[in-house]
Amino acid sequence: MLVLGGGIAGLSVAYFLKHRDVPVTVYDTMDKPGGNCRTIRIRDFSFDTGAHRFHDKDPEITVQVKGLMGDELKRISAPSKIFDEGRMLSFPLELRDVFISMDTSFMIRAGIDLLKSRCGKRGADDFESFAVSAYGRSMADRFLLNYSRKLWGIPCHELSSEISGERLRHMTFVTLLKHFISRRYAGNAHYEGDFYYPERGIGQLPEMMSARIGSENIQLNSRVTGIFHNEKRMEGIEINGTALVNACQVVSTLPVVDFIAMMRPAPPQDILEAARALKFRNIRLAVFFIRGRGINKAATMYFPAGRYIFTRGYEPKNRSGFMSPQGMTSFVAEVPCFADDWAWRADSPAFTEKVREQVLETGLVRREDIVGCADERIAHAYPVLERDHREKMVTISGYLSGFDNLEISGRSGLFKYLWIHNLVREGRNIAGRVAVRM
Ligand SMILES: Cc1cc2nc3c(=O)[nH]c(=O)nc-3n(C[C@H](O)[C@H](O)[C@H](O)COP(=O)(O)OP(=O)(O)OC[C@H]3O[C@@H](n4cnc5c(N)ncnc54)[C@H](O)[C@@H]3O)c2cc1C
């Protein structure tokens, strides 16, 4: 069994196959497994490839992950915050906070807009219409649309309402109102503040999976460069432009765009075009090492304002004390970008300097406390869920499902906004299906 890609999706397939004693080899182009779910260590500081947490959303999968990680997996309670004009508001947004902290003219405008949106008809199924109908124009602009424009890099009316995911589905106006009247009524409508987190960073999960799979079964620095097939079955996988490995059963978690582009013979024109039209958003991290006990206790801080190029920032030590040395903290800013944007191409000093000046502007950190910095690029961080992405993926999936020894998984492979627990579940399902075919 060949697994292409050693991120959490590929490792999960391999991990559950090993449980079933099915021989497996994972290929990954990087020098470490984990893909976009890694922990990077620089000097005595650790930080993840973006603010990660393990959500307890699929009880069976939580049990599996606890079984693997044991005491290393800790239950954390650390709510997130929204940074709005120097104030910290609750995340997800609470009406109570808005009423207490906003100026009167904004509140009047927001109230009128909210009433208008409740009386008006719900618009098209795009993210902008969804946000405006749920919160009214003023609140949607200030807290959701500015942020989403930065995160996804395209206008919000071109985004599918799916980008709101689980989080906003629960945060209807009625929930907000109930919570405003009494926190008691909101029940467990959102779960942002409670999560699991490994003591040494999220990368401990892929590291522990890799240890169970066995390093001899994970081929690192092995880039898939060609995918050969006979229109019905995968026949061979080319690694690093030379070695050809026979394909008996293949699971690909590679970005679907790359997979299609590497297929030989090339797929039909409509498939190539559908794949080429899919976009991915990258993230570049700017990391600052800071003297002092900490900025605040928030798990993650959201920065909706357009004047900051970063969307989120976080102190890794608020997830685990092992992430920073004693008396120090660090602040990681996430800057979303496309591959041809300045933020992706800029050299490290120029990039970190720009972000540092903006972080200083927030007033959260003092210049004299910053003792060092680093940066990290995360490619294929998010599939950009444009309004027509489903049609494109139906075309592509229909074509790929015609290969009887091929399974697809992964956030970029399936082009879905999937979380770690979804990918572990998917890995278990695929391993179950494939094992009976071997
Ligand atoms: C900023 C950020 C924050 C997140 N926060 C959370 C969170 O809090 N909770 C949560 O559950 N999830 C979170 N996620 C999502 C989670 O990290 C991803 O869903 C998950 O890492 C995706 O795993 P994957 O295996 O599908 O893809 P990837 O991790 O992208 O793995 C794909 C692998 O394929 C390899 N590859 C690519 N091309 C080739 C090639 N040609 N040949 C060989 N190998 C190749 C790559 O090197 C990579 O290792 C977050 C993601 C990001 C970006």
Explain this structure to me?
- With 438 residues, the chain is an alpha/beta fold.
- Among the domains are: 2-35 and 205-278 and 387-437, FAD/NAD(P)-binding domain (3-Layer(bba) Sandwich), CATH 3.50.50; 93-191, no CATH class.
- It has 16 helices and 20 strands.
- It has helices at residues 8-19, 59-69, 95-101, 104-119, 127-135, 137-152, 165-170, 173-181, 204-213, 256-262, 269-276, 342-345, 348-362, 389-400, 411-414, 420-437, and strands spanning 2-4, 25-27, 39-42, 45-48, 73-77, 80-84, 87-91, 194-198, 218-219, 224-229, 234-239, 243-246, 250-252, 263-264, 280-291, 301-302, 312-314, 328-337, 370-383, 406-408.
- The strands form 5 sheets. The chain has a 7-stranded mixed β-sheet. A 5-stranded parallel β-sheet has the order 9-2-1-13-20, with helices on one face. A 4-stranded mixed β-sheet has the order 12-11-10-14.
- Helix 1 packs parallel to helix 9.
- The longest helix is centred in the C-terminal third of the chain and has 18 residues, at 420-437.
- The radius of gyration is 23 Å and the shape is globular.
- The N and C termini lie close together (8 Å).
- Bound molecules: flavin-adenine dinucleotide (FAD).
- Residues 4-10, 27-30, 35-37, 50-53, 55, 223-224, 253-254, 258, 283, 334, 378, 380-381, 410-412, 418-421, 423 line the site of flavin-adenine dinucleotide.
